[in-house]
Write a structure and sequence with these properties.
Chain lengths: 450, 342
Amino acid sequence: MTNFRSPSRRTLLRGGLAGIVATGVSPLIFSKGAWAQEFCNNPTGDSVTLGFNMPLTGAYADEGADQQRALELAVQHLNGEGDGGLIPTFSSKTLKGNGILGKKVAFVTGDDQTKADAGRDSARRMIERDGAIMICGASSSAVAVAEQALCQEMGVIYMAGLTHSNDTTGKDKKRYGFRHFFNAYQSGVALGPVLGKQYGTDRVAYHLTSDYTWGWTQEESMRKATEALGWKTITPVRTPVGAGDFSQYLTPVLNSGADVLILNHYGFDGVNSLTQAVQFGMKDKEVNGKKFEIVLPLVSDLMAKGAGTAIQDVYGTGNWDWQLTDDASKAFTKSFGAKYGQPPSQIAHTSYVQALLYADAVERAGTFYPPEVIKALEDFDFDGMGNGPTTYRGADHQCFKQVYVVKGKEKPANPFDLLEVVDTASKDSVTYDPAIFGGELGPYDPAMCA
Amino acid sequence: MDAILAQLLNGLDKGGAYALIALGLTLVFGTLGVVNFAHGALFMLGAFCAVTFRELITLETVTTDPTQLSPWGTPLEIRTPLAQTWFGEWGGFLIDYSVPLSILLAIPVMLLIGIAMERGIIRFFYKRSHAEQILVTYGLAIVLQEVVKAIFGPNPISQPMPPALAGAADVGSWIGLGANVVTYPWWRLVYFLFSLGVMGGVFALLRFTTFGMVVRAGMADRETVGLLGVNIGRRFTIMFGLAAVVAGLAGVMYTPLVPPNYHLGMDFLVLSFVVVVVGGMGSLPGAVAAGFLLGILQSFASMNEVKTIIPGIDQIIVYATAVVILLVRPRGLMGRRGMMES
């Protein structure tokens, strides 16, 4: 017969503690250490490399140049140089100007040429050759969708720049992709009521649409918004990206019976089609007893500058404007203006914010391990970035915040005073059910740069 | 009717550009027998003559006004163009009319570039195959566009048209269709008339001058003209320079329509070759006729009524026409009998 001695309370506590350590906590500790080996481009030295991939050539090259300026400024601020920009106004207080997790931030840049395949190649090069742990960039939705898919495949987080297609966080959304910029659906929701108020409910619209993912969703969203007002739509016309001369597409507008021209164009395409439409006398025309109007649903300061006087009185929407008067917008404009001698555009703002949001998520996660960084970004509520209270929705990685309706200024006070904010759509009004655009985010599991 | 007229005007204006570029291309082929893939680059260089001219006359002095602050807190910069400082109101006129005035710069510059290109590179390839000519001239085009990219950057640079020509002309009222029924941009009408003028000038030079007569004789039978003691080589070099000027002028006047960038020439290169092939290799009237024909076809193919029947036709109409012409009449619309028909 074997005698079992009943264990003392101290033995039980000691044994239980050992058991907890052995079975519960220790795997977490080990796995946290193991992350170091199990994700793409884990930074092991005293610096971390971010990849900035922008259109430095092609139809959206102006946007790309401003994007690069903003991202370089973000790196400076993350490393504690300059005035800190938006770091002091950001509601999350984890960023201290000492890099990310104490590692100095370095960066590499690439030119996506405003082309999806070139963008993918450039992003891949930055991941494989330069060891970039995060890719930020794109001014075209086709490029953003392609790069986002690549980043999902390779296990690298993608912080999109200017991408406005519903597809980016809709049918093409990815677990590793995040978009701060607003989308075409939100443009329609914000712009529709303003157009109804300004131009009435009895209008005939003619769409010229860039023939790729962004143009299609922008056209669809604007059709929904304007047809809900009672407007009629003439069969939209698709135009190639980078067409340059739009005259052959503009000429049929004149005799189509339309009294509103909606230009679903961006970048140089938007500048060219708008200025050429004005050259055709469309702003001075009367059709159906009403003044002919031109709408540019997505507009930026850079486009306004390129279009000159043609932008006057033209309505559109924007993600942000440098003339907003909140503390964060003023701080960013001051910081950017002091460095570059010009105000930041909306793409500069969104790219800068994306870089800071990534750095903050890493700090809050306490690791560069992508799944933890993703979880830190998902459903993250923040403020102090120039857009009011904002949520990074976990269900589709789309940021929800207010959307601005802007108009080309008639009498600019200075060469940069080109757009004015005439209305603001609230965060609630532009929030929608993520199910309407479909898509699957995909897994958290990190790929190994494969 | 009004829609057709508007589309026809658009076709003529597009066709003017195509015909001007193709005219230079076919001049070089007809005289020197060279397939010049750098011809599009000459169009681009012409456009950048306009850019250079404007940059020169808009050079500014920058002063700061400490009593006014920029939105980011630095003293406001005040920029004054030197042309206005020096010439007062005339300076403003020079800036407003920089595009047409830059023709004065483009003519000598393009003539020199053309002659230098012919003497420096092209003449060594006269007796080589067309494939080798294409390779070397295409390489030259890439070099030229990279040079322009290095100097002016990759982005398009807007060139405003003169304010007096910035609006639209009421073409409909000119022919009794009523006011504002058919309007068309003034500058595009100017471009069309300008292209007609340049083409007329080239034809007149070839038709009514001794120089032109010798060149035409050389195009028909170079050897015989040479045996008569005429230095036909020198005249052909001048013709190469003239072709460069024609392409350059087309580029200068095109800048207010589409802001030029370094890639502008490549955008037109393939199209202009199609025009030359459709018109007939080496045929000057053929190049002009094909330029206008393809411009008009492209314009009408962009109409909604046409695109509804054949989606995407606007993108392929030029090439589809070329395929049909080459199948039915390989020498092109006005090509010499036997050319490309063997």
